[in-house]
UniProtKB/TrEMBL annotation:
Start and end residues of each FAD/NAD(P)-binding domain: 146-317
Domain Dihydroprymidine dehydrogenase as annotated: residue spans: 26-132
Source species taxonomy: Bacteria, Bacillati, Actinomycetota, Actinomycetes, Kitasatosporales
Listed pathway(s): Amino-acid biosynthesis
The protein's name: Glutamate synthase subunit beta
Source organism superkingdom: Bacteria
Pfam families per record: Fer4_20, Pyr_redox_2
Length: 505
């Protein structure tokens, strides 16, 4: 503990983002170049050493938040980095991308403003790199066992790094042309500049992890071949089965899945295109979906020079305070403003979101391109259209950001490994992340067959980056135990763990 009265003397002061008018003209991170010190050390001093740190429960990684707050307060960045990396492989990712449920679980949040945990985490991670504390950790000896990791998102990368460091030979297979999964092509540059990712990949390569890009397991390489080449397989392909919008006019040109749009925008910043093949420039844009992906599309469209942007959210507008049904330390559904929403407000003067709104149909022009979207207000609970609320808004580019319904079904991976689906449409697994494999000669499915493990969104469904990393770490521990009979690797979550919610929610 540092100053026992710090939370009483120092008000909460988050790191300020760059001015809206500045960042809308580039693709740099919204915090790029902002001064973090000594602000961060002052804010870390607000941690009150509460005795029972509920922030640990707010984060599935079990981050040792009060410990690294104390080190950051004293400016001991080496010790802070050691404590931070003890539970998190990639804190520079989570410090930028996670919505910080740990802050809502902070004891100070009971009746005051919580510690700026996310800002402190990012600062420690960045200081760790800048001061040379994040060196590669190759294994002291090799186990003689090899593991294939399918997918290079945060779950796959975390599993691969843990297994490599414990001494196994690990090969990561990625179907895209670059490593990173959604970190690479799904997250805009203004939220995560990709040199952070490249730096981690270089560290992992120095530790001994092998990367194989452009290999679509199930199509380019039969998945059963991996089980012959390797002693174990970790499936971390994410939840990329996109939800559709089945309304009249969906077939019109100009209506696209959000992830296709974001991928092409990211490929421009990667240097693959001089200009985006799909752009919002000069167009009236409508984003269908009120989540993080929709917000990412909003920020991207604004930077591309959209004529206007509207974001439709079928959910009712949340209040500014915790609902009684979501008491502390539950992560509450409250009105939140992302950086993209702030940018839209700065340009348009109003929030771009229309709450309690649903799409009825699309109208097209004579060339077969979308021209307008018809929407209606919906009832808060039943989500049924309210009478006499239909209206038309211009729509020259429509982006469907409706989330995902589990891992992709096609492509051969599921059939070749004999994977089954649970009742939520994800790859079924036991509490220890071992895949439930359906065999022709064994029905019903038997558990833990063939050394196949499922990690991340592929088994959990779409979730937060902290859950993906936690699952990758836990699946690595399960894989190591399968290969060697025991493990020293940490396992922060089980496959059945879920975020803390209020009873009956």
């Amino acid at each position: 503990m540092t100053d026992p009265y710090g939370f009483l003397k120092t008000p909460r002061r988050p790191v300020a983002a760059r001015p809206v008018e500045e960042r809308l003209h580039d693709w740099h991170e919204v915090y790029a170049g902002q001064a973090l010190l000594p602000l961060i050390s002052e804010q870390a001093g607000r941690c009150m050493d509460c005795g029972i740190p509920f922030c640990h429960n707010g984060c599935p990684l079990g981050n040792l938040i009060p410990e690294w707050n104390a080190y950051a307060r004293r400016g001991d960045w080496r010790a802070a980095a050691e404590r931070l990396h003890a539970t998190n492989n990639f804190p520079e990712f989570t410090g930028r991308l996670c919505p910080a449920p740990c802050e809502d679980a902070c004891v100070l949040a009971l009746n005051a403003d919580p510690v700026t945990i996310k800002n402190v985490e990012q600062a420690i991670a960045d200081q760790s790199w800048e001061r040379g504390y994040t060196a590669p950790h190759p294994p002291q000896r090799l186990s003689g066992k090899s593991v294939a990791v399918i997918g290079s998102g945060p779950a796959g990368l975390a599993a691969a790094q843990q297994l490599t460091r414990i001494g196994h030979t690990v090969a990561v297979y990625e179907r895209a042309d670059r490593i990173g999964g959604l970190l690479r092509y799904g997250i805009p540059e203004f939220k995560l500049e990709k040199w952070h990712l490249e730096r981690r990949i270089a560290q992992m390569e120095a530790e001994g992890t092998k990367f194989r890009t452009g290999v679509d397991i199930g199509r380019d390489l039969d998945a059963t071949e991996l089980t012959r080449r390797h002693d174990a397989v970790v499936v971390a392909v994410g939840a990329m089965e996109r939800r559709e919008l089945a309304v009249p006019g969906r077939e019109l040109a100009g209506i696209h899945q959000a992830m296709d749009y974001l991928t092409l925008a990211n490929r421009v910043t990667e240097g693959d295109y001089a200009s985006p093949p799909l752009t919002a420039e000069g167009r009236h844009v409508v984003i269908v979906g009120g989540g993080d992906t929709g917000s990412d599309c909003l920020g991207t469209a604004l930077r591309q020079g959209a004529a206007s942007v509207v974001q439709l959210d079928i959910n009712p507008e949340p209040g500014d305070t915790r609902p009684p049904a979501q008491p502390w330390p539950v992560y509450p559904k409250v009105f939140r403003i992302s950086h993209a929403h702030e940018e839209a407000r700065g340009r348009e003067g109003s929030d771009p979101r229309l709450f309690s709104s649903a799409t009825l149909r699309f109208d097209g022009d004579t060339s077969g391109r979308v021209r307008a979207l018809h929407l209606t207000e919906v009832e808060p609970t039943a989500r049924k259209p309210r009478p006499d609320t239909e209206r038309e808004i211009p729509a020259e580019l429509v982006l469907l950001a409706l989330g995902f319904s589990g891992p992709e079904r096609g492509g051969g991976l599921m059939e070749q490994l004999g994977l089954t689906l649970d009742d939520r449409g994800n790859f079924a697994r036991d509490t220890g992340f071992a895949a439930e494999v359906a065999r022709r000669d064994a029905w019903p499915a038997r558990r833990g067959a063939d050394g196949v493990f499922v990690a991340g969104d592929a088994g959990r469904g779409q979730s937060l980056v902290v859950w993906a990393i936690a699952e990758g770490r836990s699946a690595a521990a399960a894989t190591d135990r399968y290969l060697t009979g025991s493990t020293e690797l940490p396992s922060p979550v089980s496959a059945m763990d879920r975020p803390l919610v209020a009873y009956g929610e």
